[in-house]
Amino acid sequence: MNRDYSKYINRPGYQAPSGYDPNKYFRPSVAVDLLIFSFFEQKLHLLLIQRKNLPFQGYWALPGGFVEKDEDLRETAQRELFEETGLKNLRLIELGAFGHPLRDPRTRVISIAYLSIVRKERVKPRAGDDAKEVGWFPLRKLPELAFDHELIIKSALARLKELAILSPILADFLPEKFSAEELAGLCREIFRKKIPSQTLIKEFQKRNLLKTLSGGKFKFLRKNFYLCSLSFLIAREK
């Protein structure tokens, strides 16, 4: 376990009641699912694995797997990410829990989903464990997916929009030096709105969020980001 729980468990009262039967209540399985996003070729992409085994053999799916007995959830997420894609030590943002009783034909499975943002050129995913293949897919052209992963992805896209308003995550998608067209393309993908690149640049500059560089390039000024500084992106008409 990667968290120190000694503060919580080494106290009077940390004991099961006499005669407590853990089998009295149904115990579902717990799993994690991982959404790894990247922006390249002017499109948001998602990293998927092709399942080697049943259920949904041959379908594309989010990387993930079951939580082991002595693992913390994030520990499981990092382990499964490495075992299935070869990626490790990514910054993970918890998305939420998904637990419809019919989401997995094997048993009742509650899954905790995490999302992460990477630069494609900085990672080299490879298929491993029960993944037959691994690949990047444009979000607007995803294959038919296993389980309820389509619903998880929809939730993740809504969360990405929130994060872009509440934090400077747009900078995580783009290279340190980027063009107006790259920024406009990213905003179009996340917010589903077409905003002229120069109009967008002016809005960012008005808030002192960009530094103008030579060669038509720009750089984010993360230190100047403030809560909801990009709210204009959701206020504009499509």
Overview of the structural elements:
By secondary structure, the protein is an alpha+beta fold. The protein has two domains: 27-163, Nucleoside Triphosphate Pyrophosphohydrolase (Alpha-Beta Complex); 168-235, Arc Repressor Mutant, subunit A (Orthogonal Bundle). Helix content is 27%, strand content 24%. The chain has seven helices and ten strands. It has helices at residues 6-9, 73-85, 149-166, 170-173, 180-191, 197-206, 232-235, and strands at 29-40, 43-51, 60-61, 64-66, 93-98, 109-117, 131-138, 178-179, 210-212, 217-220. The strands form two sheets. Strands 1, 2, 3, 4, 5, 6 and 7 form a seven-stranded mixed sheet that branches. Strands 8-10-9 form a three-stranded antiparallel sheet. Helix 5 crosses helix 6. The model has no long low-confidence stretch (mean pLDDT 94).
